[in-house]
Specification:
four-stranded antiparallel beta sheet
Amino acid sequence: QVQLVESGGGLVQPGGSLRLSCVASGSTFSMYAMAWHRQAPGKERALVAGIRPFGNTNYGDSVKGRVTIFRDNAKNTVYLEMNSLKPEDTAVYYCSAGRYFGTSYQWDYWGQGTQVTVSS
């Protein structure tokens, strides 16, 4: 089992930046694809960004160009750097770990989530 703990959420003004962190338990972190998803009230959970073990990334259309996902395998940590934040980015952000199958991911483990609120 893999436990994921997110941190870094909070209140930020529109146009601001925020970095989320997710620390994974265990010694097999480098083997997993990692991702950030988000879910706003009344909305379906959506992919924000994913990263494969060796660094290949993909991004959701709603955030493309404004966020960067990266990982530090030595620290069992994946990050989400968010820039030019908009009110519509307000959501609970979830960290996940899973596997990549060529064109899609299977997410096996989820964190508890961290709230991001973008408001002036």
